[in-house]
Design brief:
The complex is a heterodimer of chains A (about 350) and B (about 280).
Chain A: H1 3-21, E1 25-31, H2 38-48, E2 50-56, H3 60-69, E3 77-81, H4 85-90, H5 114-117, E4 118-119, E5 122-123, E6 126-138, H6 150-153, E7 162-165, H7 168-178, H8 191-204, E8 205-209, H9 211-219, E9 225-229, H10 231-234, E10 244-247, E11 253-262, H11 269-280, H12 282-289, E12 297-298, H13 309-314, H14 320-326, E13 327-329, H15 335-349
Chain B: H1 2-36, E1 39-41, E2 44-46, H2 52-59, H3 61-95, H4 98-109, H5 116-127, H6 132-139, H7 153-176, H8 181-189, H9 194-222, H10 226-231, H11 239-248, H12 253-277
Antiparallel strand pairs in B: 1-2
The chains are: A alpha/beta (about 350), B mainly alpha (about 280).
Amino acid sequence: MARLPRLFLTTSVFSLSAAAAFAEGELNALVWCDHTDPALIEPFEAAHNVKVNLREYEGTGAALALLDQSRPGDWDVLVIDGIDVFRVVEANMLAPLDTTQLPMTDIFPEVVMDENNTVDGVTYAVTEKFGYNTISYNSAKVDEADMQSLATVWSEKYQSRISIYDYYLPVMGLAAIASDIATAEIGAGDLGAIGDVLTTMRARAASVAGVVAAQTALATGEVDIVVGGGEWLTAVLAEEQPELTWTIPKEGAVRWAQSIGVVEGSENPDLALEFIKYIMSPDGQARLATSSCFWGMPANAKAGNVLNDVQKSTLRWDSQTDYLGLTQLYPAPDADLDVEMQDLWLETLQQ
Amino acid sequence: MNGKNQGLRGWGFVFPALLWTLAFFVVPFLVMGAMSLATLDGRTLVWGLSLENYAEIAEKAYIWRAFFVSLEITLVVTVVSILLAYPLAWIIAFRIPPRWQRLALLLAVLPFWTSYVVRSYAWLLVLAREGAINQTIMALGLISEPLTLANTRFATVTGFVHFFVMLLTLTIYANLIQLSPNYRRAAIDLGASAFQTFRYVILPLTLPGVVTGAFLTFVLCIGDYVTPQILGGNTELTVPQVIMVQLGRRADFPLAAALAIALMAVVTLAYLFSARWLRLDRL
C-alpha cells in the first residue's frame, strides 16, 4: 500500500520534470487527419506546455516527398500507413523507437505487426490505430443479408447504388479475398482474376470516391453501399443516421493499420517519444479512436477502459476477436508489383 | 549617357518581373523537364536522360484515354461557357443602365468569393439523387425516378461551366464596353439587320476578348484536378487525376513530370491553334 503513493509521487515528479524540460517547445508532426482533432492534441500541449504543429498529408508518396524536401530536424513525429513503415526505414527517415517505454503488451496481438514495424530486429514504429476496409451500407435501403457475402454485395441488384473507395490497395485486397487469394500472397499472376472482379465491381458502381465524397454519397442517398468502407466511414455519421452501418462479409475483409514513429534527425526526440507515449496511452488512444476526422479501433486494448459504451458499440469492440480473425492486412506489394497493381486500377477506372 | 541611364532604368523596371519569371517559371520548368528524364529504380530516383517515362505514356492506353477525356471535357466546357457568357456580358454591357453595371458585375463574380472546393461539394449535393434538382423535377411530375446527375461527366462540366462563365463574362464585357456605339449605328444606317450587325461587326470586334477568355478557360480547365475528382466521381480519369495517382502512394515524380510536360505540350498546341485561327495577335 505504501508503495503506491511513493510511486505516484515519483511518477508525478518525473512527469513535472519532463514537462519543465520541454517547456515552451514545439513539436512538428506529419500526420493523418485524425490527429488534427484538438480534443486529441490539446491535452498533450497543456501537459507539456508545448505547441504541436501538425501537417496533414494523404498518401505515403506525399509524406516521403515532404520529408525528402525538408531539412533534418524539421519533423519530429510521423504517422504512416503500417504497411509502408519499411519504405520510410529504407529511406532512413525513421529513428529506432524505444519500445520499453511503450505499452507493447497492451496492444492487441494481431496488430503489433512486428513484421512491418521492425526491420532487422530494430523497431521503428508502433501500431496506433486500425480498422477495416470492408462494406459500409445503408441498412434501410439494402437487404442486409446480401451484405454478408462479397458474392452478393456487387451483384446486379445493386446496379449504380455502389461507390468504391478510391484507393487501389484495399479495394484490390477485397477483390483478392473475393477470388480466394490471400492478400499477403498476391502476385503478378493473380492480377487477371483480381481484374475480373474489379471490372464487375466497377460496372456496378456509380462512383469511385475518396473519404469525404464517399461519406457524402452515402449520407445523401446517392449510393447505398460503399465497397472498401468501414467504421472509419460511417462512425462519424452514426449519431445522425444510425441506418448507416458496416459489416465484415463471411469471406473476410481487409484490415488497415497506421503506425507512429520518431523521425530520424528530430531535434526533439525526447518530446517526440513523450508524444508517442501519450498517443499510445489509454486516454490518448480513446481520443484518437474517436477523432472527429475518422474513427478507428485503438491499438491499445486498455483504451476500452476509457471509451464509453456507446463509443465501444459503434466501434464493435466486442466483435474485434472475430473481426481480427476474419480479416487480412491489406496488400503490401513490392515496387514492381505496385506499378502493375496501380496500372490495373487505372485501367479499370477508365473502362 | 542619358540613353545609357534610361536603358539601365528600363532594365531596373523589368528586372523584378524577369526575376519572378525566372524563379517561378523557368527554373521550376527546367527542374520538371529534368525530372521527366529521370527514372525510378524500385523506389529510388535515378537522374539521367531517359525517355522511358514518355515511352510509358505512349504505351499505356489509360493515359491516352485520360488525354482524350481531358480534351473532350475542356472543349465542351469552353464552348458552353462562351455560349452562356456572351449573352450575359451583352446584357450587362448594353441592357443594364451604367450605374447598375458595377453591381451586376459584382453579382456575376460573387460565386468567386466562395472556396472552390466548397463550391464543388455544394454542386455534388445539388446534383445528388435526393438533391435540389431531382427533388424539383420530381415534384413537378416530370420524372418518377431521380436522374443520375452527380458523379458523371455532366456534373464535372456543370461545375466547370459555373466557374468559367464568370471568367468569360468579365473578359467579354471588357471588350464590349470599349466598343463605340457608332459601329452599331453605322451598320444599321447601312441597312444591316440586328443579326448582321452582330455577325459582321460586333462579333469580330469582340473576338479578342472571347479568345482570351476561351484560352484561359482551356488552360485552367485542362489542368484542374479538384472539379473532376469531386464531381466526376472517378467514372473517368483526366490527366491531372492520373498525375495525382502517380504521386499519392508511389511518389513517381518522373512519370508525373513527364505527364505534366505532355499536358503543357497540349496547351501549347491549343495556343498555337488559337493564335493562328482566331488571330490572337490582335489582342
